[in-house]
Amino acid sequence: MIQILLHYLWPYLAIINVATFLTFGIDKWKARQSKWRIREASLLLLAVLGGSLGAWLGMQVWHHKTLHTKFRYGVPAILIIHLIIIGLLL
Prior knowledge:
Layout: H1 2-32, H2 40-62, H3 69-89
Helix pairs in contact: 1-2, 2-3
């Protein structure tokens, strides 16, 4: 059962993290262009749904949302929780 779960988990995590990373980049671009932005709740939801590594990398690479307290502390906390869950599954 765990092997089947892990078989589908890795591709899912890869896709959600790439999508989250790109979403942070798109939101940063929209911020610079004064266009409609992606809601902060949507960015955090992507992190919670498994894209925490992509969110953290997006924050570092795009220098985006790094001054917002809920992102500065929330995204690393979500990432730690995800790493603990993956560690327990392995």
